[in-house]
Amino acid sequence: MRPIVWRVEHFDEIDSTNTYLTTKVSEDAPEGLVAIADFQSSGRGRLDRQWESPPRASLLCSMLLRPKLDADRLQMVVACVSLAARAALVRLSGVRPQLKWPNDLVVGDKKIAGLLAEVVATELGFAVVVGLGVNLTYQGPEGVNATSVLDESGLTIAPRALLDLVLEEIEPRRQQLSSDEGRRLLRGEYQRALATIGQRVRVEQLSGSVEGTAQGVDDSGQLLVDVDGETRTFGVGDVVHVRPTESGTQ
Ligand code: BT5
What are the DSSP calls for 182-225, one per residue? Predict the structure, then answer.
């Protein structure tokens, strides 16, 4: 597979870099288009939640990918970008976050970054817009258990420097997505980085909640949970929240 050619567009201010790239998909924008903003006036989280940051206090970016994957494997694209963000943070700041399935980077139990993946079906296959927000000097909104790279390392990192490293770290993982052996390796890296594995979790679905112990992820990045001795699989689309149970260890 050819390496991706990244093309980065910078905005001083935008509503949401994810919204921007989602619109670009319908204009047939190529894979590798990236948007980065100093400030988002309507930054978005999952399920209509908000993503907040004052100007230039976070990395706020989105990238357009067109993976040749079945739709049910798209969580592995999120895994690629999450692992790339983690690796870039380690290289630049020494901060080593863990991943919280499905879309958070955490230090201990504090959120340092979040991802928002949105899938657009096109005639050419699926396009995925993956948004990434990393708190660089901003500690997150009032009342939210969050942290920043500055808090964790004492370092002030430039958003663009972090973005460049994230993009560099995505490429080898993107290559892995295209072979069985590569996907096996990627799944291994994903499982090792996931703080969720081994925890008692409560999975909240629209239909109600179930408790069990997170065991791992399958090839598609879905969460495997032991519920009373039976392994059950949960996809991102079905899950409202996965949180440690009160009796579980963090
Ligand atoms: C996420 O959603 O964590 C996905 C965040 C994705 C943000 C990026 S920024 C660039 C791109 N463009 C966008 O518009 N979005 C993406 P979720 O798991 O739903 O978490 C949202 C919740 O996190 C909110 O309801 C708040 O409680 C909390 N939150 C908001 N801002 C935060 C921050 N800066 N740090 C930590 N937590 C935050």
Answer: HHHHHHHHHHHHBTTTTSEEEEEETTEEEEEEEEEE-TTSPEEE
CA distances from 4 to 31, 32, 34, 191, 211 (A): 7, 6, 11, 25, 41
For the cut 50, the answer to whether the pLDDT of residue 50 exceeds it is: yes
Q: Which residues lie below 8 Å from residue 235, measured CB to CB, with a gap of 6+?
A: 72, 75, 220, 222
Question: Whole-prediction pTM value?
Answer: 0.95
CB atoms within 10 A of CB 6: 17
| For range 132-155, the mean pLDDT | 97
Is the predicted pLDDT of residue 250 greater than 60, yes or no? no
The per-residue b/e assignment along 59-79, b for 16 or more CB within 10 angstroms, e otherwise, is bbbbbbbbbebeeebbbbbbb
Report residues whose beta carbon is within 6 angstroms of any ligand 1 atom: 16-18, 40, 43-47, 49-53, 60-62, 103-104, 111, 114-116, 131-133, 135, 138, 140-141, 144, 146
CA dist 141 and 53 (Å) reads: 8
Distance in Å, CA 44 to ligand 1 centroid = 6
Asked if residue 53 lies in contact with residue 26, where contact means CB atoms within 8 angstroms, the answer is no
Average pLDDT, stretch 69-80?
89
